[in-house]
DNA sequence: ATAAATTTGACCATTATTGACCATTGCGAG
DNA sequence: CTCGCAATGGTCAATAATGGTCAAATTTAT
């Protein structure tokens, strides 16, 4: 189907492949003009196809010389453990589940001891001062972005 | 990179590196001429990139023989880290302030690059899915516990 | 028919650039 | 000495250049 969002997605993934590294930088307005769509559609594509669940990190800056940078998290390079663990997190996670995952990450030496301590501090229920439906969701989100940060090898 | 401010920032940081000490002295008009911008843009760069939050002090003098001196202030490496951290982070902190602190910690090699990326991921407003009065407070809290986790090692 | 995904646009936020006008300092001419 | 000017740097507000959010409208899939 001639779905613009999909075209944009493919275009960006192509750029990622071509660029030697694992990231591309682009301009929102320029891209939008190129695809003859409104700029906010770029945001739509980014949030639906290039989010952390899909293994991407998006950074950006506004103003003069602004940009959008899309970074691919190279999960494959770390082999099975990293991928499995990343998927394990899910939409919600409680503290002890999170701690198990962190323990495993440390055992597999995918993160250092210090990093494990940072992870534990963040997923601690006392750090996440929220009531329960939301706390587990925030914890899952934070765990995922922390994993993404670590697996990101820049 | 169509961003003069960034070029000027890099230029000054280069000068700082090259000069043995931790300070450089320059002339506003001269610099502005060199980069073909208005003199006040130098002030813009100074106030956004070389302020105390970023660990710099700027001194200057007007009139004949005027100058601008930029001095880099290193973080205290001794004393109780917890106290210093608490002072730095406070009860609430926005994303850019947090990022500045993280950048400094990495520059001072108090945390590794990977750790800095974890920190950044956690303090990102998109990771902390909360509305604004509480988001800054949660961010401050998380930053504090992460720093505590790292400095606890004694 | 309903739900989900996509497309649009109005309005918002952040960062950079520019220029008019202001302040301070040093140095000569009287 | 003192006054005045040349040589510096400072402030602030307007404008430009980007990107972000949110929800309504529309299209597509179930």
From TrEMBL, chains A, B:
Domain CtsR N-terminal HTH, residue spans: 3-73
Gene Ontology biological process terms in this record: regulation of DNA-templated transcription
Keyword DNA repair: no
Domain of life: Bacteria
Start and end residues of each CtsR C-terminal dimerization domain: 83-147
GO molecular function: DNA binding
InterPro entries: CtsR (IPR008463), CtsR_C (IPR041473), CtsR_C_sf (IPR041908), CtsR_N (IPR040465), CtsR_N_sf (IPR041902)
Keyword Repressor: yes
Alphabetical UniProt keywords: DNA-binding, Repressor, Transcription, Transcription regulation
One Pfam assignment: CtsR
Family: Belongs to the CtsR family.
Protein name: Transcriptional regulator CtsR
Organism per entry: Desulforamulus aeronauticus DSM 10349
């Amino acid at each position: 189907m001639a779905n613009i969002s999909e075209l944009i997605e493919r275009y960006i993934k192509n750029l990622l492949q071509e660029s030697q590294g694992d990231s591309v930088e682009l301009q929102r307005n320029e891209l939008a003009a190129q695809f003859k769509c409104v700029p906010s559609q770029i945001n739509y594509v980014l949030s639906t196809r290039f989010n952390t669940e899909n293994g991407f990190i998006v950074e950006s800056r506004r103003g003069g010389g602004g940009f959008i940078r899309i970074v691919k998290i190279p999960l494959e390079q770390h082999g099975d453990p990293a991928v499995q663990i990343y998927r394990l997190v899910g939409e919600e996670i409680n503290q002890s589940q999170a701690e198990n995952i962190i323990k495993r990450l440390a055992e597999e030496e995918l993160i250092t001891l210090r990093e494990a301590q940072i992870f534990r501090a963040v997923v601690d229920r006392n750090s996440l001062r929220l009531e329960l439906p939301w706390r587990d969701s925030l914890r899952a989100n934070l765990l995922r972005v922390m994993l993404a940060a670590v697996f990101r090898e820049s």
